[in-house]
Amino acid sequence: MVTGAALALGTAAVMAPPAAAEGVAPDPWVSVTPEGYYRFTAPQATVQEIVGGTPQVVELQGNIGPAGTWSDLAMDPSGTDYPTQVGILDPGLYYYQYTATFPDRTKKSFRNPDAPAAISSKPAWSTFFVPGPSVQWMSDVANGGDVAELTYDSPAADDERTTLVWTPPGYDAERAEAYPVLYLLADDSQSADEWTELGRARQVLDNLAAEGALAPMVVVMAEVSGGDPRAELLDGVVAATRDAYNVADDASGQAVAGIGTGAEQALTLLRTDPGVFSEVGAFSVEFSGRPADPNRSEVAAINEGTDRLRIYVGNVLDPSYNTTHDLLRTFERTGVEHEFDGVDPDTGGTWDTWREGLRDFASRVFQDDAGHGPREGHRPLDRKYTAPAAGSITTPHVDENGIVTFETGTQWKDAKDVTVWANWAPNGAWFRVPMTKVGDRWRVQAGPLDGFYYYRYVVDGVDQKDPEDKVNTLTGVSPLFVPGETDRMLGDLPEDERGAVNLLTYDSAVAGEERQAYVWTPKGYDPNRAEPYPVLYLNHGGGQNYGDWVEVGRAPQILDHYIKDGAIVPMVVVMGNGNSPDFPAELVENLAPAARAEYNIADDAARQAIAGLSMGAMNTLNTWLTRPGQFGWMAAFSGGLFFNTPQFDPALVNAETRMARVYTGDVTDFTYQATMNLLELLETNGIHHEFAGVTQGPHGFDTWSKNLVDLLPRLFRDPQNTQGVELRAVVPEGEDGVLALSVADDGSGVTLDGPQNTGTALRFTGQLPTVTVTDSRSVSQAGVTGWAVTGQAYTFESATRLLDGKHLGWTPRLESPRAGLAAGDARATALGGGEGLVVPGRLASATPEGRVGTATIGADLVLDVPVDTTPGEYTGTLSLSLFPVD
């Protein structure tokens, strides 16, 4: 029994479209596609002239990897260029370079010679900024403050040096009251310019000033490394600033903060010159030697002369993490009054950490009512971090916060470069993360990560499977699952809640050999059940084998979760070897009979489904079209009829087909056009089919696992008892408008109230129309079954953007409560910290005790829409289904 209802949602809002291209750096080799991908195109002739030869490999390198990790992306030659692209990128600042690698593995990094230098201390680097609401605080501001150079004679080095000075909008050099001044000190590995080039200090300060969150001040950015940093700062930078600008010279109007050794210099001044700076900030502090504890008189002088001492640090990947731990314990032990901002869980010792630290510190200094606690979401630092010891791990180590450590064995001790290549780039693309040689091993740490990944090593340009992987034995990649907030469906359930994966061996007359297939059976599978189980034949792609859906695609995990949730019809799934000269014959005449001989599965079209990816999609399509009456359910993931179109009878195909559903990745999926051609072929021939829309992602298992998640709840439903009503959301042009959602399937409509700006989303709330379940089955009919109602949201799609079903959530409730009835769990949206209804959520359920009669169910709906949603009309579907359950 499967019944369904769906919602037609009409949404109106007023929003400004994001200006995706406005943040692109002036590098003529960089462009932005309409979909939001950043495309890099380096002319081969120019590159070869720059590097002085023909490289073996050209790569784009930058902070484009997982959690901002420095990563490599191949720029394979095409025509006269080296092109590549990355995206869709989260808003933020990105820095990158181009690197050529020669056959002897020597490397040369460079930038486009026609682009201006972006980072003074990194001559090969360029930058680009991806705008968005989440980084509005570091975006350009019209009529902001000014940044000017200040040159002075160094008292420590006896030469001329330069600092940068930011003055606020409306700065008045003749103002009667001098401006307070904040001195920002660079690390010894940085230049003062990096505060503006990578720290975006100008934009951070301009935005704070525009928000009214900044005390009018002057900010000086300097590098004071050398033999006498104290003299360099006080007698050089500070003295020159007082001469050139209308700034305060008393402690209450002076603050200092620094990064790394700059932080050490700022803290040292607390002891040598207490009371000179009333406010001190330390970002990722590093000490050149272990400092002695301050004595009582020093502590008293520090506390007396300092209004605020605030400490900042990144996560365990910040090299100063343990140093900061020791510093905090010293302050606590000796009584130095201080504030700790907490551990930034998202980033390590990078400009992403320090930039946000600058924003926080600058908003507090010279403010009487500034708070003293850590920012929301930051963690305490109550113990040191110890990375896995060299030689102690064989496969990747994942800590409790999602930091992953990779370490090789000693077999590649003589290699010149080793990287980890995995699907952890935006949208599941493959990026290489360089490893560092430690002794005879290679090691790298990255994170925090969240979800399922698969990886391999690349040793001197040659792909190598992790030799310590004992889990994936049939594929060339190794698995890595990091528990977290995403990809719940891909995680392992406890062993007693899983189905079984067994190996089926059979003789193939088509291939002339003994062959094998994996067969998944659901938890509770009964080989003697009177009614055979429906069966799905799930096919792999080109260059793959029967192990890929198990080892890489996580099909068993997805199926296990669905069975536990009661969201799919219990079925058997057969994953065979699709590498055959005659796939339809191999499947129908060899594999399927062998599977039926071993398992209690059906052989009629109504209970047989076939699906596949890429080449497997082509094989699936050929079998479905040329063997009508065999399979009533068909799905093709990222594939079409690549080489030829077989002869088929549309009427016969339609006669037994219950559902034919077509999927594709986005424009980065190289089979995208083949899928479009397939849709045209089906339409032209009048073959009934559904198009699932575009799955955002490339040609890979990130896309295909999502496709399988979408497909499984649809299989083997009674089409007469499943209904769907189009879901439509319209976001028109405009600014700061209202988004309204109407539910029209019952004729009355519902309008969601809102929006409420949560800071990261526009939130709208409303009520699901009442759902009624009537159960009048007799005991002989129902046995000991109850029922469950589940709901699943599908993609909102427009011509320019996809809004996944994860943006819709609900809180179910019972309108007619009684014993044996239970409302389902609330499902938060992705922007609200959950997974939304992209994976079916339970609306309500009944035990055998409570099933009989009529039950009415409601739910509070939540729609969280990104504040930068592109204007347009969005369509999708929300389906409710009723299942009998044990």
How are the secondary structure elements laid out?
Blueprint: E1 4-6, E2 9-12, E3 30-32, E4 38-43, H1 44-51, E5 57-62, E6 71-74, E7 81-86, E8 92-101, E9 107-110, E10 126-130, E11 146-153, E12 160-167, E13 181-185, H2 194-197, H3 201-211, E14 218-222, H4 229-244, E15 254-259, H5 261-272, E16 279-283, H6 296-305, E17 308-313, H7 321-334, E18 339-343, H8 351-364, E19 397-398, E20 404-407, E21 418-422, E22 431-434, E23 436-438, E24 441-446, E25 451-459, E26 462-464, E27 478-482, E28 500-508, E29 513-521, E30 535-539, H9 548-551, H10 555-565, E31 572-575, H11 583-598, E32 608-613, H12 615-626, E33 633-637, H13 650-656, E34 659-665, H14 672-684, E35 690-695, H15 701-711, E36 726-731, E37 740-743, E38 753-757, E39 761-767, E40 771-775, H16 779-782, E41 786-793, E42 796-797, E43 802-803, E44 808-814, E45 821-823, E46 841-846, E47 853-866, E48 872-885
Parallel strand pairs: 13-14, 13-15, 15-16, 16-17, 17-18, 30-31, 30-32, 32-33, 33-34, 34-35
Antiparallel strand pairs: 1-48, 2-37, 3-4, 4-7, 5-6, 5-8, 8-9, 8-10, 11-12, 12-14, 19-20, 20-24, 21-22, 21-25, 23-24, 25-26, 25-27, 28-29, 29-31, 36-48, 38-39, 39-47, 40-47, 41-46, 41-48, 42-43, 44-47, 45-46
Helix pairs in contact: 3-8, 11-12
Structure explained in plain terms:
The chain has 16 helices and 48 strands. By secondary structure, it is of the alpha+beta class. The strands form 10 sheets. Strands 11-12-14-13-15-16-17-18 form an 8-stranded mixed beta sheet, with helices on both faces. Strands 28-29-31-30-32-33-34-35 form an 8-stranded mixed beta sheet, with helices on both faces. Strands 1, 36, 41, 45, 46 and 48 form a 6-stranded antiparallel beta sheet that branches. Helix 3 (201-211) packs parallel to helix 8 and helix 11 (583-598) packs across helix 12 (615-626). The protein is globular and about 90 Å long. Mean pLDDT is 89; it is low at 1-23 and 733-744. Residues 1-21 form the signal peptide. Pfam families: Esterase (PF00756). InterPro entries: AB_hydrolase_fold, Esterase-like, Ig-like_fold, Mycobacterial_A85_antigen.
